[in-house]
Design a protein that fits this description.
alpha/beta; 25% strand
């Protein structure tokens, strides 16, 4: 049986992380002995790379700038075996950049420069559909209008549409227009996102159910999957709820784990039609990714699980 092709549409940027003992005071200079790192970042790019490493046929649609970082991201896509023809260059905007200041205490402060991500639109998504995907995964890191347009394209073509609503605080507006989205197969989000979009804090099972009820009233989605990080995940199919336990693996660095979870869940669900089996596999992938520091570098291959 031929492998199903997954098309990731959305955010692409470079992550520049700097380690420091603490955040400097205004006007202060702190010397740091920690290494700084540059690596691919963005939910769609990392999700696509994770998908390819797990053995799924993967394509990606994103925008980068006409600069060194854009060239680097395109090289990485080719190296990882992605169908990356639709990682296109914006001649006016720089490649997106996530600047992270990581303190020894574990506190991370981020400044995001969206850059070329703002230029991704309907025309780019239409061109990307030439790769004949079996599913489309859209992240909310792009402009809301573009996500709405992609959902409409998926509905017109009869392609299953998956919404990855996970985002760092402040990246996606709380009033994101879910009501304008066409029918989605699965909505994936974390606890903080569930609170942002539903107004319900999912601190226990009853609150998680209420958050899912509230979100499902906002738009037509078949399944809602609430990720609980190292505690597993919570599924709602419109009628029943079920909790799926996490793998017993000590988390070291969650960077990249959420994107790897998304890739694993959707890939296995497409191949088996069994969402619970997909979620169990995704929990395994999440645990493996989070047990290794590094984000992009920690994304596992299937043989490592």
């Amino acid at each position: 049986m031929p492998r199903k092709r997954i098309l990731f549409i959305g955010g692409a940027q470079i992550r520049f992380a700097v380690g420091t003992a603490r955040t400097p005071a205004p006007g202060e200079v702190i010397r740091s002995e920690a290494n700084y790192t540059f690596a691919p970042c963005g939910r769609s790019i990392l999700g696509a790379i994770a998908s390819a490493r797990l053995g799924y046929d993967t394509a990606v649609c994103a925008r980068v700038g006409d600069d060194y970082y854009g060239d680097r991201l395109r090289e990485v896509c080719k190296k990882e075996g992605l169908h990356s023809t639709n990682v296109t260059v914006d001649r006016t905007l720089q490649t997106g950049l996530a600047l992270e200041l990581v303190e020894q205490s574990g506190v991370c402060r981020t400044i995001l420069f969206p850059g070329a991500n703002r230029g991704l639109g309907k025309a780019h998504a239409e061109n990307a559909l030439a790769c004949l995907p079996d599913a489309i995964v859209a992240s909310l890191e792009t402009e809301p209008e573009a996500v709405v347009q992609v959902s409409a394209l998926a509905a017109e073509r009869g392609i299953p549409f998956f919404v990855d609503a996970t985002a760092k605080r402040g990246m996606v507006p709380a009033d994101f227009p879910f009501e304008q989205l066409a029918r989605a197969e699965i909505l994936l989000l974390d606890e903080e996102d569930a609170y942002t979009f539903s107004g319900v804090s999912p601190i226990n099972e009853e609150q998680r159910k209420l958050a899912c009820y509230t979100l499902r009233k906002r738009f037509d989605v078949r399944y809602i999957l609430l990720r609980l990080g190292a505690r597993g995940c919570f599924l709602y199919d419109g009628k029943y709820f079920s909790a799926i336990s996490a793998f017993d693996e000590e988390p070291v660095d969650p960077a990249g784990a959420s994107e790897a979870f998304t890739a694993a869940l959707i890939g296995e669900y497409l191949n088996t039609g069994d969402l619970r089996a997909g979620a169990e596999f995704a929990n395994n992938v999440y645990a493996k990714t989070a047990s290794v520091p590094g984000g992009y570098r920690s994304l596992p291959r299937r043989s490592e699980l």
